[in-house]
Amino acid sequence: MKNDQVSDSIQNLFSNENPIEVWVKAAEIISCINPDYDLSDIRNVFRDTVDIFNGNYPGYCAIKTPFHDLHHTLDVFLCAVRLLHGMHVSGATLRNSDITLVVIASLMHDIGFAQECGTEAGTGARFMQIHVRRGIEFMRHYLEYRGFPPAWGASLTPMIQTTDLDLQFDQIAFLNERVRLLGQIVSTADLIGQMADRTYLEKLLFLYEEFKEANFNGYKSPLELLRQTQSFYKMVRQRLDVEYDGVYTKLVFYFKDWFGIERNFYMEAIEKNIAYLSKLALLDEREHLSMLRRAGIADKVLVPNRAFA
Q: Which CATH architecture best describes the domain 3-302?
């Protein structure tokens, strides 16, 4: 890859709004892990996931949660695939079933925000505290619908549970150490995939809206949530380094092999976001929104009677 192509690719690492582009990237990476891997099953899962978010899946309306949206799921999915590649390059042996399970879990980890047609109310954020459980229930029905082995549910359940930060990692019942590792990949991707987004801080305004709709956590203002995100990141680092055994470090192998650059651009992007947050947290209620201007998100939050209100 030429230098200018490398630069463009790195600039667009977290530009995952277009599902078609995300799929092409992921399929190429998976094919490098194993050229003989049959992509047809996970292609169907990917398409079905996009359809659910867009309201094109039978029995469900579109998922309207502004933070836990399709872009977030695509961020997590692609980060998980990149982690798999990094582990492969580092010498880990990955079975085809490992790839499939990680893909399904990363795509379906937030599917529990989906609302059945005729029962929709608000954005679906009311399911905040039970969305992981709802997602697991959906996943089990989905395995049957797609003709996947029902036994996969026993592995996918704890893998999806790892994305529930209210659960202690050591309390999750993994079938074996291999499933535990796959769960670490999914949960790592969930955390760093979202926090590396260059609009992550702006999207916390959307998260505040979800919390408010769900009557969850009792933040008094978006600024309070932003300030507490500094403490949240300390907890995240603890989980990444200890509970998840530093799986995120395998991304260095991915970037070295894919771009010829021995760096972890996910963690660098997160550190930039947190450094900017440190400055923002010193401001008052009137000033902090002026520091959050990317993607017009602050303007959307301030518009009354918006579609996701």
A: Orthogonal Bundle (1.10)
Q: Which residue has the higher pLDDT, 160 or 276?
A: 160
| Rounded Cα distance, 127 and 210, in Å | 10
* Residue-level pLDDT at 120: 83
Taking the C-alpha atoms of residue 255 and residue 300, their distance in angstroms, rounded to an integer, is 35
Is the predicted pLDDT of residue 75 greater than 70, yes or no? Answer: yes
Per-domain residue ranges of the chain: 3-302
**Cα–Cα distance between 49 and 189 in angstroms, integer?**
17
Q: For residues 267 and 249, is the Cβ–Cβ distance under 8 A?
A: no
Cα torsion through 247, 252, 255, 260, rounded to 10: -160
User: Residue 67: what are its φ and ψ, rounded to 5°?
Assistant: -90, -50
Measured distance CA(269)–CA(255) in Å, rounded: 14
